[in-house]
Amino acid sequence: MESRIIPYFKGDKIAHIKTPHIEAFYRTLVDDYSAGTIKRFANVLNLIFKTAKRYSMIENNPCQDAQKPKRKDEDEGLKFFTPKQALMFMKSLDMSYEVTYKGHQRIDDTGKPYYVNEYTESYTVPTQYKVFFTLSLFCGFRKGETLALHWNDIDFKEKKISISKSVGMTENGFDYKEPKTKKSVRKVSIPDDVIPLLKQYHFEYIQTRFSHGTAWQGDLSNGGNLFIQADGKLMGHTTPYQYFTKHLHRYNEWVQNNPEKAKAEGLEELPIIPLHGLRHSCATLLNYLEVNIIEISKTLGHSTCSTTMNIYAHSFEEQQEEVATKVNEFLRLNA
């Protein structure tokens, strides 16, 4: 978040920042972030100005009356992948992409600048991002629940993942907190096809951890965090969303540039959904596979089945129409 807040307000005296300035900042976030992420930006700013007021640096908190803008897609309902799109997304995670880097200046170890010419290299999605997005899509985890995972939360023998905590933002950075509801504390079964990916990532994680030696900055308790930065520290709160969005754009660009190959492989452009849309996609996929509403609700960690129905009623109804269409087609073929 510091990558947006600090550059935007850099050079402004805190006492000169008023409610219209806060609202103008919020508007810069609408096209890049989900409503939930914008709310977290607002919480950070509110904490900053609340502290400033407590220490008599300002008379009023400009965030108090600031209105957060609605995203254009908020009134259009939930954003998610259809089952067909979910399969295409999974294929996209295993593809190789050509990435071109523009010419730029760098500094060598002696402090002397040098120029790097434009170059292109092949790029594949790192395993930890494959794991993050796969768990979000097939297990329906919330982002905070996924970030909070430690290796000891995974029972490879029973093929289950325990959700008992979530990562939240505090005035001191990030901290663990209780999940959203009591029902959010749960054990979720891992699909058999996901187990090899988890084991591969665990092997890579162990290699990385030991290669760092004493320079490792990560949490060593409970087997360590699953999702990390290069030095082992917990992955940043906005990193999964940023990578997810970048990946979707990169994949869509590949489809546009390789239409014949994409058609041959049954690949189409994917909608740019928010990261939380993978959780919605999970619910939609489970309903498509005719999993009963009680099990869908348990998987998602909802407090009641009615919560699940209230959130997904519209998308479930659309799928029922698809089912009716398929039945009609079947009857016509066999008439």
From TrEMBL:
**Cross-referenced InterPro entries:** DNA_brk_join_enz, Integrase-like_cat_sf, Integrase_catalytic, Integrase_recombinase_N, Tyrosine_recombinase_XerCD
DNA-binding is among the record's keywords: yes
- A biological process term (GO) from this entry: DNA recombination
Q: Name one GO molecular function term.
A: DNA binding
* Ranges for domain Tyr recombinase: 109-325
What keywords is this UniProt entry annotated with?
Answer: DNA recombination, DNA-binding
Family, per entry: Belongs to the 'phage' integrase family.
Name the chain's protein.
Answer: Site-specific recombinase XerD
Which organism's genome codes for this protein?
Answer: Harryflintia acetispora
